[in-house]
Each structure stands twice: as C-alpha cells, then as structure tokens.
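Structure request: Phosphoribosylformylglycinamidine cyclo-ligase, Tessaracoccus aquimaris.
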Amino acid sequence: MNQSAYAAAGVDIEAGDRAVELMKASVARTRRPEVLGGLGGFAGFFDASALKGYRHPVLASSTDGVGTKVAIAQAMDKHDTIGFDLIGMLVDDLVVSGAEPLFVTDYIATGKVVPERIAAIVSGIADACVAAGCSLVGGETAEHPGLLGPDEYDIAGATTGVVEKDSILGAHLVEVGDAVIAMKASGLHSNGYSLVRHVLLTEAGWSLDKHVDELGRTLGEELLEPTKVYALDVLDLISKVTVHAMSHITGGGLANNLARVIPDGMAAVLDRSSWTPPAIFQVVQQVGGVSQADIDATLNMGVGMVAILPQDQVPAAMAALQARGVWSWQLGVIEAAEGEGSARLV
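Returned structure:
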C-alpha cells in the first residue's frame, strides 16, 4: 500500500513526521547527561554506566495512563497540561520506593494526528519530566482512524528509576508510633474522573464553562488542574530525614492506598479533622449525593502523597517540604492492630 492510499485510509504519515519535528525542542529540554542519541530512533538509550556509582543498584519501573481526564482536555481543546497528569502518575508511583526516576517513554493514540495538538501534549509531558528530573527518551504516536474520533486521543507511558537496595522504602520499615505526614494535592489529580464526569456533567448537566462560586473559577479550569509532581520534593525529603514508607494517593483513595505500605499487625489511624478537603470534593459529594464511604474510596480528598516516618523527624520533614513549597501536616499515627495492615479515617 503506497502512502497516498494509506492517507486515504485515514493515516497521515506526513502529519506524523511534522508532529515529531514540532516536539523535538520539547524533548531536548528533558535531556539528562546519561541519554544517548536523539529523537527518531527505534529505541531510546540511557547510559547504564551511570549506575556504577551505586553499591547495589535496583531498577524500579512503573507504567500508567491518565484515564478519562483526557476527555476534559479534549472538550476544552487545551492539551499542554495533561502531560503533568501522565508524568505524575508514573514517577510518583515509582519514587515512593525511594527510587530516582531516570527516564520516561510515552504513547499517544489518536484518531487523527494533528501535529500542533500532539506537540502540545508532548510539551506538557516534557515540562513535567523537567519538574521530575527525568528524561523523555522516546515514545510513539499512533493514528487509529475508525477506532478513535478525529479529536480523540489517549496517552500512557512508562518510567524507569534506580534505588540502592538497602535504601528501598516500604512496609518492612514501618514501626508502631510512626507519624503519618500528608502532602497537599493540587486538586483531583488524575483519578476518579469517571465518577466526577458522571456526577457533574451527565447527571447535573453542568457545562465545563460554568463558573462555580465554590471553586472560584469555571468547572473546566478546576477539572483540568494539572497533577502535582512530587518526585523531586520526595527525593529531597528522603535525603534530609529518615523516612520509612510512602504512599502515592491515586485511584482507590487515601486509606486504600496507604494500607498498601502498612505491615500486618499495624494500622494507620488518620485524623479526618486535621484538614479540610478542597471545595471540588465537597461539590462532587453534595451535587451527586455521593456517600462519604464512596468518595473516600474513589478520590484523593486533597491528599496527594503521604510519608510515614519517626515522630521525632516530623518538624524537620515539614520544614523541608515547606522550603520546597509543599504544604504538609500530620495526618495520623501508626498504631498496633490485629490482622492485616490497614488504614482508617476517624
């Protein structure tokens, strides 16, 4: 099949080539010194000799997507921030183990390649990679006519990082009496959008350009607020204080994600009165008549990242986070409990 016939079938190779040219400058901004070669090869290269400085390097890997938040970006025709949602989901899942994210690859599937739109998406991904200290070493843009509409797309990616084996954080380090520190989320981040869209857009019939007084801006602006990328903040925290475990609060909510790093025989007891969730969470709950249990199990409720550390490390930890512009507070404490590790809001 020649190129013109392929184009007639809905795949524009020339548009794909233009998209690559437009994104080259964005990708170059993310380049770490260990990256070899440039954009356009069949694979991205990262010089593994950089790992010689580790005593016992362990590679960590994570993969994820953005979910139905992309529908908000498409509806608003604003595509330069959704990359923060992708990178936040990738690197912050990885960094909770103590690993430094090294590089990322991305995948964009779309019904029609519009070079400027693809370049805007990649620009956001690149900006977020810079914020996370990792390199965007490659990716794929796939045109899927007939499967996706001309203005539809989905994005996903994968990241690889490294951590010293004896520095891996996790449940094995958590002790009774440890403090639980919360870090403020920038908003909904990139989880629970199927619920949010169903409640506010479908059932309530709100438009994205509706100004919501409780939010102080339009609904679309609130829903498209980029995910906070914590990677460098977390790595800085780990370098300055003793941290036992961390949890990235994503799909499943606060308690369910935190329970993943609580050992058997212990429970994280979280004080619900220690913070007030941002207005968007109250709006979703009230407009949709969503029960407290359901919303707790779906949305982050304003907590994007959690650290578990010795109680005497709390002042230094909060000072380190404040110095980086991350609002934090003591959310709870680790107590002895029967059965499997758990977390609960009281």
